[in-house]
Amino acid sequence: MKCNASKTSEGNGNKSLACDDECARLERNRKLALALNVDPEAHKDEHVPYSTETLRLFREHVKWGQQQEREFRVFAADEAEKRLRFKPMPSHQRAFLHALAEDFGFDSESMDPEPHRHVAVFKTPRFVMAPMKTLAECVRIRLNAESAAADALEEQRRLRWNNEAYNAFFLTFPRFGLTIEELRSELSGQLQTAQGVVFDIAFLPSEEIVIKGKAATHSTNISALALEATIKAIKPSIANTISTKRLASTCQLCTLDSSLNVVRKELDSHVNADGWSRVAAKAAAPRTAPKQIGVGEKSVYTVLGSKLKDAKRKKEEMEKAKVQEPLVDDWEEEVRREEEEMERREGEAVGEHVEEKAAKDAELVASAESV
Predict the structure, then answer these.
(1) Is 131 left (phi over 0), alpha (psi -120 to 50) or beta?
(2) Which of 95, 117, 264, 307 has the fewest C-beta atoms lying within 10 Å of its C-beta?
(3) Nearest-CA neighbor of 149 among 55, 56, 46?
(4) Does residue 120 register a pLDDT over 90?
(5) Distance, CA of 289 to CA of 259 (rounded, Å)
(6) Is there a contact between 118 and 87 (Cβ–Cβ < 8 Å)?
(7) Backbone angles phi, psi at 107, to 5 degrees
(8) Mean per-residue pLDDT for 317-324?
(9) pLDDT single digits (tens) 70-79
């Protein structure tokens, strides 16, 4: 029985609610979504209603951009306002206003020449309502999406890395002057033991060497796992020969693509698998006590011309002088003798000086007379 139905009244069955502004907005959005073939359910949570250019410009000046966004929202909420003018500003700020107006559904135009050029925004029939999400929220959503995509890509790369089968040897730091013919000759015995597999040797641009295995003939079909098993089986003998004859520094397994690009290396795989555990498992470096220098020994760190060395040398010279000088019984007589010796030396020096001066005077007189 219908609600409020009676013999004289049909009740509320045929009544309908009047459509208000909110109802009209939802209906317009529904028709717009149908016309543009857009699924509204897919744009509820992670949908970003702003262009990439708008978000990029907003991230350059977040605080200023939030102020302009607030002006746009006040303008959008006021039905009576049809035009919004901004004050003059630089070109990069005007570019942000144009991009934001496009996202809101407004028309925008730059007016007046520099330095009075400004932006005017107009409401148009294509404007429905302001975006539900703010610019800051959309920037956060975009950053989270980019981070999730990067994590997924890294996970895929790691899985692909670990699942790629080895198909070559990777030699690091080869001996100087080593040629491909010489290396093939040295490893011919080990490489020939691989049944149904032949090896191509090539130098990489980094001067490292790769030895890639492949099927011996085009008709031979060998799987990637079988090739990896064959390479692993002969690796010990290959590594031993390379180490014994010093052909290269290290030999490890690797995966090469068709262009000889190294996709995966053995040591890198170990690091990716348990990098921190390998570091933590290593024993700490042994600590050795510093060597004590014994008494009378000289340190290896000798400072030439040091004060201690000069003082020691002076002390030795004084001791030698004391040994060579004879002891004097009468010190007063010795002092008098030294004074007389000093006066004699000074007199001789004065006499030599007088003689030299007289000789120069005679030369000057002789030269004057000749003139």
Answers:
(1) beta
(2) 307
(3) 46
(4) yes
(5) 53
(6) yes
(7) -100, 145
(8) 66
(9) 999 999 999 8
